[in-house]
Amino acid sequence: MVPQPIAWSPTGGLRVLDQRALPETCVERDLETIADVAEAIRTLQVRGAPLIGIAAAMGLVAGLRTIRSAPRETFVAQLDEAIAMLADTRPTAVNLRWALERMRRAAGSPGDGDLLWARLKSEADAIWTEDRAMCRRIGLAGLPLVPDGAQVLTHCNAGALATGGIGTALAPIYLAHEAGRKLHVYVDETRPLLQGARLTAWELGRAGIQCTVIPDGAAAALLASGRIGLVIVGADRIAKNGDFANKIGTYGLAILAQHHRIPFYCAAPRSTIDCATASGGAIPIEHRSPAEVTAYHDAWNPAFDVTPARYVTGFITDRGVERPPFGAAE
Ligand code: MRU
User: pLDDT, tens digit, for every residue of 203-252?
Assistant: First the structure.
């Protein structure tokens, strides 16, 4: 059973699994207001590109439920304010903006507060449900790439904890395991916040999938050892030309994989593809507090880097595996 990082609370609030506390403790938090949801996304209580889109959409519904009987103008003004606040929480993952734009469009047609709120609720549920289905399709598209006996390297957490379903990079791994294939997943610990060591290793362990955490700096030696047949990572934003942003360290892994002639795949739903961004240089990279790296020294702490398209063997998406040349997708 994969973990469920998000749900409606019994009172209609947003219930999230606080990922900062994992794997030591499973703390669930009920978020009632837009400010609560914004804070939860900013502080990585909920994280991962698809999940922050889902959380923002469901958060709008939860936060605006108290004003649902307001006149249309009041409701729309509050909705726009809420969307602006949520959009401002994290800059790199395009899924956040994609989900918020979808929610704004759902509230676009005539109606009073009650009707608009009901439309927002069904749109948020649709975003959540569709993401679950997309994860499965990504898993099916990537399944032939993970044969029996596969040894796979991944980075950060692009699993169930980052999505509404079985993840993106981890989806083919979950389905290969379900199909009875023997696998071993190596997981970069993913400094500085250890999403690999804390989250990916935890969810794979719960599913009974064999995994080993490695220090980020050990990836070169591991790939040189000849043990790894495949690298799969997720993405926060894929530019039109196939350059993509993912957790800091992904770019280095792509170069290492190419050097060692090991296939390097990026798995993501279509909502992560941003055709309005021509290439990786235009992707906004989040810089986080130096304190995440060290409390004692100055630090450079970009949360994501951009991997040039030339290092990508293929994108595993909900529509199949896309191979170079990239740029045709709309
Ligand atoms: O800072 P995070 O933990 O939100 O970063 C997450 C990643 O980089 C994931 O690999 C990416 O969002 C894909 S999640 C399916």
Answer: 999 999 999 999 999 999 999 999 999 999 999 999 999 999 999 999 99
Strands (E), the chain: 6-8, 14-17, 28-31, 151-154, 184-188, 211-214, 230-233, 237-239, 244-247, 264-267, 273-274, 304-307, 314-317, 320-322
Nearest-CA residue for ligand 1 atom 6 is 48
Query: Is any ligand 1 atom within 6 A of the Cβ of residue 93?
Result: yes
CA distance 152 to 316: 15
Residue carrying the six token digits 């909920």:
46
Does the Cβ of 91 fall within 6 Å of ligand 1? Answer: no
Whole-model pTM: value is 0.94
Assess whether the C-beta atom of 236 lies below 6 angstroms from ligand 1: yes
Query: Which residues have a catalytic role annotated?
Result: 236
d(CA 156, CA 195): 5
Report the SS3 class of residue 43. Answer: coil
Question: Hey, how many other C-beta atoms are within 10 angstroms of the C-beta on 253?
Answer: 26
Degrees, nearest 5: CA angle 110-116-119: 110
Q: How much distance in Å is there from the Cα of 113 to the middle of ligand 1?
A: 34
Q: How far apart are CA 199 and CA 247, in angstroms?
A: 14
**Contact indicator for 187, 203 with CB cutoff of 8 Å:** no
Alpha carbon separation from 257 to 185, 219, 245 (Å, rounded): 16, 9, 17
